[in-house]
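User: Hello! My lab partner asked me to get a predicted holo structure for this protein. The small molecule is zinc ion, SMILES included with the sequence. Please write out the structure tokens.
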Amino acid sequence: MFNNIYDSHCHSNNSHDGHNSVEQMCITAIEKGISGFALTDHCEVDLYKDEYINRVDNSFRDITLAKEKYKDILTLSAGIELGQPNYNIELSKEIINKHNYDFVIASTHGIGDSGDLCNVNYSNMSIREVNDLLDRYFKYYLEMVTICDFDTAAHLTYPLRYIEGVYNVKIDLAKYMDIIDEIFKTVINRGKALELNTSGLRQNIKKPFPTIELMKRYLDFGGELITIGSDSHRINDIAADFPVSLEFLDYIGFKYYSFYRERKANMIKIRL
Ligand SMILES: [Zn+2]
Ligand SMILES: [Zn+2]
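Assistant: Hello! Below are the structure tokens for the protein in complex with zinc ion.
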């Protein structure tokens, strides 16, 4: 029997790729019996001024209203998913300080202003080129967790959603294990959390980001702070695959996961 369900990664229609309003998300969460969720709409730092200023403000407004409206039945966290925060550290700080956020997710969707790695045609690339791209990706991710302000580091193996899941190119992560280990140590030393992003479980790749094996490696390094996020972009996916994910986390030895409010980790017991 699992304890309360808190989903730390959800998008509303204030994200360019989200489908439902915050109100619809709250109603669904209550219907599903979920204890709480963090609204973490996108803000790609390299595109902020052109595409995200209004979306970010609208997202914060909507979650603030919902927090008050549903305060007796749903625990809501006002979050943001910052893409490429290391692209412009000063701007990232400005964005985080603009609103009174509970929770900040740091993500690498692209390398600098390369554009989102979901848009790359990997079938046109040699395996060596794919490996080089991944090498640059993990180095950029390491830079992000080293120098940026954030609470959880999101979907560490994000490019595999496309490289393996869509283009069917198999990747040997052993090549990148030194950098991944550095990422884990940096996250731990800075007192930050690592995200288990469950979205891959409902996509072609059929595994979370990162894999359970990597979560175990993080735990073995002393990593205790983790968040779990569905990365839902539609209401049906809120808290998707949480029971099986909690089962895995429990099995490999995690006792708690975290849900952030006021930029502080609240520890949720995995098993009752
Ligand atoms: Zn993301
Ligand atoms: Zn997301």
